[in-house]
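Researcher: Dear colleague, please comment on this protein.
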Amino acid sequence: MNSLLLVVLVLVTLFVLMYLRPRSSRRAPETSQARDYAYARRSYLLSKAERSFYETLRTAVGDDYHVFPQVHLPSVICVAKGSANRQSHWNRIQSKCIDFVLCDTQWVSPVLAIELDDASHQDERRHERDGFLDTAFEAAGIPLLHVRAAASYSVQQLREQVRSAAKITT
């Protein structure tokens, strides 16, 4: 009788350990190939300043637009077909990101790009990058709004800046 009770206790314990533990703690098994890669998950996608701006921007545009942060530039603009020096133009955009992109809700097509200008934008190389972005977005027909990074933002003021930059009249 004692051995039967012991077997039942062991089985119940195994059941609890295997099936009733929280599912969120289960991770995909690590393969030997995955161990050879030196990658780790980032703790967050946006800096504190970007996160603050993102929340204000989402409030300012409401349900009128989708707000996408940290967008890979070739996802927004591309090298026009038939362009001379195609590879050279591709090389200039392929490793860049834009801080935020507003897209219409029906087709998810870009309406406005936003660059959050912090102190790093005072650097000469950053001026060159910003000038390139201004010209590239103008050529692509997508307005680019530069917003100075701040400790806080006015929802109404940001809404007006977005409307003006995107040339929204309603």
